[in-house]
Description:
Blueprint: E1 3-10, H1 15-24, E2 28-39, E3 42-51, H2 52-64, H3 67-70, E4 72-78, H4 84-92, H5 103-113, H6 118-136, H7 140-149, H8 153-165, H9 168-198, H10 204-208, H11 222-240, H12 244-251, H13 256-268, H14 272-310
InterPro entries: DUF389 (IPR005240)
Transmembrane segments: 116-137, 176-202, 222-239, 246-267, 279-299
Keywords: Membrane, Transmembrane, Transmembrane helix
Amino acid sequence: MPLLHLRMITPADRTDEIVALVEQSVGTTHLAVLTGAARDPRGDVVLCDVAREAADELLERLRATGLPEWGAISAENVGLTLSRSADRAERDAPGEGADAIVWESLVEETHEESTLTVTFLAFLTVATMLAACGVMIDSAILIVGAMAVGPEFGPLAGLCTAMVRRAPRLAWRSLIALLVGFPAAMLLTGGFSVLMDALGLFDEARFLGDRPQTAFIWQPDAFSFVVAFLAGIAGILSLTSAKSGALIGVAISVTTVPAAANAAVALSYGNWSETRGSAVQLALNLLGIIAAGTLTLLAQKWSWARQRRAV
């Protein structure tokens, strides 16, 4: 059963207001008040569970009271609940939990995943270097592995979320991660390619030879955009429904990291044709994911608003 557990800290003089708001909200259950239990910030602790499909509306109402300014709100997914009261709350809530979007959670998750950090750069660089090895030896297995390691879907989803929620800070954070992350990873991969060539592990003749398993990376066509668009839809759906397995499928269906790797290796050998082709492939994949992700979020927002109005 998809439930969220909410923990709120509120000053004692506002506790009754928050409790009344929770009691009046559909889809809530397991309400508890711990008087004077909070020390920082000082006040009472209010606990409750809420059906996922009712969580976004409740969080909006709690935010409107100013609770995040003078108290705190924490939310976490409940893995297992055995409760008749929870069953009733789930039935009373409008729609289906799998279709609901908890916008506060989505914004927070994409905000974290879209931040330019050393870890993000390390994952993106390692993924690009793995893809460079896959390109050199024409290994589809290594290409798939590099796709799975790449962390680029985080800022792409952050950009989609920012456009729908009109969150400029999240948009800038996501753009910085992409505009700094990819060039940095490609630059380091270019140096890696030169080093591997000096060690005799990479070879220009092999790179320029036939590579039937990986030639698609630098030969973009209409399917490049179509696949990226479909992957963008699946990726956003996986985030909003918390289906991590689907997100892994998205990671191995687009060629952002392999295209960046092929461009870096081609550039290190002065192969401008493959560099341009790989750059176009990268751009098509990024644009396809962003377009599909944004449209998917808009469609989900419209659909869910319609369901709530129908109740």
